[in-house]
Amino acid sequence: MDADVIVVGAGLAGLVAAHELTSRGRRVALVDQENSNNLGGQAFWSFGGLFLVDSPEQRRLGIKDSFDLAWNDWQGSAGFDRVDDEDSWAVRWARAYVEFAAGEKRTWLDGHGIKLLPTVGWAERGDLRAHGHGNSVPRFHVTWGTGTGVVEPFVDHARQAARDGLLTFYYRHQVDELVVEEGEARGVRGTVLAEDNAARGVSSSREAIGAFELTAQAVVVTTGGIGANHDIVREYWPERLGTPPAEMITGVPAYVDGRMLDISAEAGARLVNRDRMWHYTEGLQNWNPVWPGHGIRILPGPSSLWFDALGRRLPDPCLPGYDTLSTLKYLRTTEDLADHDHSWFILTQKIIEKEFALSGSEQNPDITAKDKKAVLRDRLLGKGAPGPVDAFLRKGADFVTAGNLEQLVEKMNQLTDKPLLDAAVVRRQIEARDLQMANPYSKDSQIQGIRNARRYIGDRLGRVATPHRILDPAAGPLIGVKLHVLTRKTLGGIQTDLDSRALAADGKPIAGLYAAGEVAGFGGGGVHGYNALEGTFLGGCLFSGRAAGRAAAKQTA
Ligand SMILES: Cc1cc2nc3c(=O)[nH]c(=O)nc-3n(C[C@H](O)[C@H](O)[C@H](O)COP(=O)(O)OP(=O)(O)OC[C@H]3O[C@@H](n4cnc5c(N)ncnc54)[C@H](O)[C@@H]3O)c2cc1C
């Protein structure tokens, strides 16, 4: 045997599983198709947002959260409707995960040296129904160091285990087959790829220079989702979301290729909920791309006005930062919109300065570098938009600015093949909205939402601009942002039980085969159901990777 356990995929889930194994003395082969620069996978690029319930950070900000509230939110978002079948384990994972987030998670993170910022963000504010989708309260805790701060302890553990002789890295080893014989996982076979010193995230060559086979008592699959493979995204795009856009941008590196899903199915694992995906509608073309089609997601505050490609304000709950998939559904299923791949934000300089955040570790260099002074200077005390946002404003292909609305709309029209926007129509809607600003109450639900958000101190201080008229010249210049659909997360995948054991079509575990992280729908084959509450993907990798590592260690004792 080459190892006690083979872990396929050196992203967050794989690293956590490897740590659980090596800390129990198991010998691990950690196999990845990419080079050592990419250790940590997507999590390294991530914003590092973590879903926690009733945390000390929330309490300090006056947020009253509880397991009951979070579990109600989770169920309302997930909408599990396959509980006797594809959701049977997902529901159990969901409950266990919310219990973890409301209980042990905070101390467990602390134990690994993972620190959180004192502010708590309010992601996915929801679909405006108490029993529906969304977070009733802010729960998005950003890690000090962003995603790099989440992976760092596990990368360190893996390197230490390698020095101790317990872990062997197999970089540039692409797994093509899981070896399951007589119902038991025995190893992996695959292709050795040519050396490629590509920098982190840059797509690497697939030139084959040989074949390999590794054997072990157990195999843990932690190979991520399908986000970079638009063919698979299109193949499983659900009818309820209309037709996929002709053009999408890509929110993940090219190695998130989805190949291991079918390879796992060939080995007997059951794939479930493949029609559930989490793509964003506020994607920007990166002016400084790392991977092919590289897109960045805006994490918007609530004040930008959202218009469809034909210049009509989007209806509730399609408001910035509220309900990702309802917005995607609206844009893809409304008859005269489905031929257009984009939508628009119109906002003011005052809004962009306070409300635009960009997801990704490299877009938040101050937090990523754990530089307290820079965070204070750039985010709280500084004038103007944070540096990376300002760079998009100046260099991004999707941004236009103007001193008045007519000029703005003219420039927006220049970003599409045909001019689709009528400045008079856009003006009428913005003026109607601006008339609602005279009182501290209003009939406009977005303005109600802005005022509601500002009752939370975290939003008032750091995230939501003082309410103002969009057409107030003092708040300008005006900004138009062309928004694209950006592929990111895979919500379904390999069905697993609470020990992360991969299940076969008959519902029984395949001996020695485990799956965790995004490839397993972050636990159970779809812990999120249809919708995510955000910050739940990294957490899902931690929780399911931990379960896989512990169970595989027990099996190989
Ligand atoms: C920009 C960005 C921002 C994000 N922000 C957040 C956030 O704030 N909060 C949050 O919760 N989530 C966030 N996410 C999502 C989260 O980072 C991912 O869902 C998570 O990191 C997935 O981890 P994983 O270990 O399951 O898979 P991955 O990180 O995708 O790792 C899988 C590894 O498997 C390897 N692999 C794949 N196939 C094979 C094969 N056949 N043979 C060998 N190796 C293979 C790949 O090369 C890769 O290294 C973000 C993601 C991105 C990209």
From TrEMBL:
Source organism, top-level taxon: Bacteria
Q: Where is the FAD-dependent oxidoreductase 2 FAD-binding domain?
A: 4-538
Q: Where is the signal peptide?
A: none
Query: Which residues does UniProt call coiled coil?
Result: none
Question: Which InterPro entries does this UniProt record tie to the protein?
Answer: FAD-dep_OxRdtase_2_FAD-bd (IPR003953), FAD/NAD-bd_sf (IPR036188), KsdD_DH (IPR014614), Succ_DH/fumarate_Rdtase_cat_sf (IPR027477)
Q: Provide the alphabetized UniProt keywords.
A: Flavoprotein, Oxidoreductase
Please identify the protein, giving its name as recorded: FAD-binding dehydrogenase
Q: What is the lineage of its organism?
A: Bacteria, Bacillati, Actinomycetota, Actinomycetes, Kitasatosporales
